[in-house]
UniProtKB/TrEMBL annotation:
<dbReference type="GO" id="GO:0006281">
    <property type="term" value="P:DNA repair"/>
</dbReference>
<keyword id="KW-0227">DNA damage</keyword>
<keyword id="KW-0238">DNA-binding</keyword>
<comment type="similarity">
    <text>Belongs to the RuvA family.</text>
</comment>
<comment type="function">
    <text>The RuvA-RuvB-RuvC complex processes Holliday junction (HJ) DNA during genetic recombination and DNA repair, while the RuvA-RuvB complex plays an important role in the rescue of blocked DNA replication forks via replication fork reversal (RFR). RuvA specifically binds to HJ cruciform DNA, conferring on it an open structure. The RuvB hexamer acts as an ATP-dependent pump, pulling dsDNA into and through the RuvAB complex. HJ branch migration allows RuvC to scan DNA until it finds its consensus sequence, where it cleaves and resolves the cruciform DNA.</text>
</comment>
<keyword id="KW-0347">Helicase</keyword>
<dbReference type="InterPro" id="IPR011114">
    <property type="entry name" value="RuvA_C"/>
</dbReference>
<dbReference type="GO" id="GO:0009378">
    <property type="term" value="F:four-way junction helicase activity"/>
</dbReference>
<dbReference type="Pfam" id="PF07499">
    <property type="entry name" value="RuvA_C"/>
</dbReference>
<dbReference type="Pfam" id="PF01330">
    <property type="entry name" value="RuvA_N"/>
</dbReference>
<keyword id="KW-0963">Cytoplasm</keyword>
<keyword id="KW-0067">ATP-binding</keyword>
<dbReference type="Pfam" id="PF14520">
    <property type="entry name" value="HHH_5"/>
</dbReference>
<dbReference type="InterPro" id="IPR003583">
    <property type="entry name" value="Hlx-hairpin-Hlx_DNA-bd_motif"/>
</dbReference>
<dbReference type="GO" id="GO:0006310">
    <property type="term" value="P:DNA recombination"/>
</dbReference>
<dbReference type="InterPro" id="IPR013849">
    <property type="entry name" value="DNA_helicase_Holl-junc_RuvA_I"/>
</dbReference>
<keyword id="KW-0233">DNA recombination</keyword>
Length: 197
């Protein structure tokens, strides 16, 4: 089982990256947030991985953080949620935001995640409530400092996608001025729209 890859980032696509490890290119499926955290192609990278083996395929799923990997494994323990679905969920909501929604039984927030219907959202709440308690506690404090940190993370994610620091800062400032409390994944999507328009 491949648990970690360290090498050169060869390519970065919409839902995966190719990591070159001593001349061998490994295709790693990644969530939108993990992809955003990667450096530009050509730079050194290290990703945590989960190896999924099926009769007809061998797939690697990657994570930028231990937190995301941990939540991914918990999601796969939910009935009818496989690795691809778990990663799709993590592309639509950050791990801490997911934990907080599950802890609060916020089915409405969970159904805003692409691919998550009401039944799946209710199942996530029932099956994960106890398992994600510690992460939900970490997500609970919402202070002005936390909001500032969110925009710092947004800038880092944008520079990781190859935008210049000045561009990343301008996009983060524009979204900060709009106000309103939004999760990082939503801010990232809005920033990319701004930068690509």
């Amino acid at each position: 089982m491949i648990a970690r890859l360290t090498g050169t980032l060869a390519e970065k696509r919409d839902d995966h990256a190719i990591v070159d490890v001593n001349g061998v290119g490994y295709r790693v499926q990644l969530s939108a947030l993990s992809l955003a955290a990667l450096p530009p192609p050509g730079e050194r990278v290290a990703v945590r991985t989960y190896t999924h083996v099926r009769e007809d395929a061998l797939q690697l799923f990657g994570f930028a953080t231990e937190e995301e990997e941990s939540v991914f494994h918990e999601l796969m323990g939910v009935k009818n949620v496989g690795p691809r679905a778990a990663q799709n969920i993590l592309s639509g909501i950050a791990p801490r935001e997911l934990a907080r929604a599950v802890a609060e039984g916020d089915v409405a927030r969970l159904t805003k995640v692409p691919g998550v219907g009401k039944k799946t959202a209710e199942r996530l709440v029932v099956e994960l409530k106890e398992k994600l308690v510690a992460l939900a506690r970490a997500a609970a404090p919402r202070t002005p400092g936390a909001a500032a940190g969110l925009f710092d993370q947004l800038e880092q994610a944008l520079t990781g996608l190859g935008f210049k620091p000045a561009q990343a800062s301008a996009a983060a400032d524009a979204l900060r001025e709009q106000g309103g409390e939004r999760p990082l994944d939503e801010l990232l999507r809005e920033a990319l729209k701004l930068l690509r328009s």
